[in-house]
């Protein structure tokens, strides 16, 4: 049995338009929760590719990352699990809606909220990183996308 500790790698999109942030409302084992468009890094994709894919799956919108907002670690404990997540959060440009595209399983709807509305709904956040990523974005925290390097061998795993 492998006893090595491994965090779950996730990506998230911090999307702001005219002072509002795009979030998803999703059904979880803890009930309806608010989250950034986000999800797990899949085998054979770079973090950028994962963020584009997850945003499309959860919002039906194309997404073009322009900067890394930050890299975050958080731990979620419950009766059954003790999981640490490493989140790479990107900001960028939201593209066109793909009309008729179904949202990913568990996503109830998308919604646009102000920073104050997000701050006032912390008890409904899926992760403490929802608020932290937004606050870092609002502070102007940005890192170039070239900070993240994906070796070609990772992309070959898609086969």
- Arithmetic mean of pLDDT: 94
Q: Please bin the fraction of helical residues.
A: 10-25%
Number of domains: 1
The top-level CATH class is Alpha Beta
Tell me the number of helical segments per DSSP (H or I, 4 or more residues long).
Answer: 4
Question: Could you give the distance between the termini?
Answer: 27 Å
In the sheet with the most strands, the strands line up as: 5-1-7-6
Q: What is the gyration radius calculated from CA atoms?
A: 15 Å
CATH topology: Nucleoside Triphosphate Pyrophosphohydrolase
Counted beta strands: 8
> Which residues form runs of ≥5 with pLDDT under 50?
none
Could you name the CATH homologous superfamily?
Answer: Nucleoside Triphosphate Pyrophosphohydrolase
**Overall morphology:** globular
Descriptive terms for the model:
159 residues; alpha+beta; Nucleoside Triphosphate Pyrophosphohydrolase; 4-stranded antiparallel beta sheet; 42% strand; globular
Task: Explain the overall architecture.
It is a single chain. The strands form 2 sheets. A 4-stranded mixed sheet has the order 5-1-7-6, with helices on both faces. Strands 2, 3, 4 and 8 form a 4-stranded antiparallel sheet that branches. Helix content is 20%, strand content 42%. The chain is globular, with a radius of gyration of 15 Å. It is α+β, with helices and mostly antiparallel strands. The chain starts with 7 loop residues before the first strand and ends with a helix. The chain has a single domain (8-149), classed as Nucleoside Triphosphate Pyrophosphohydrolase (Alpha-Beta Complex), CATH 3.90.79.
């Amino acid at each position: 049995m492998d006893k090595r500790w491994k965090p779950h790698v996730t990506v998230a999109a911090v999307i702001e338009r005219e002072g509002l942030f795009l979030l998803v409302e999703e059904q979880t084992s803890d009930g309806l929760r608010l989250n950034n468009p986000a999800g797990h890094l899949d085998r054979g994709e770079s973090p950028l590719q994962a963020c584009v894919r997850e945003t499309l799956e959860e919002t039906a919108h194309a997404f073009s990352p322009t900067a890394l907002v930050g890299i975050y670690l958080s731990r979620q404990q419950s009766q059954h699990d003790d999981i640490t997540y490493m989140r790479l959060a990107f900001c960028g440009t939201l593209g066109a809606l793909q009309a008729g595209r179904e949202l990913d399983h568990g996503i109830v709807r998308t919604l646009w909220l102000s920073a104050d509305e997000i701050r006032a709904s912390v008890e409904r956040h899926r992760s403490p990183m929802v608020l932290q990523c937004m606050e870092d974005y609002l502070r102007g925290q940005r890192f170039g996308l070239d900070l993240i390097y994906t070796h070609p061998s990772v992309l070959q795993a898609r086969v």
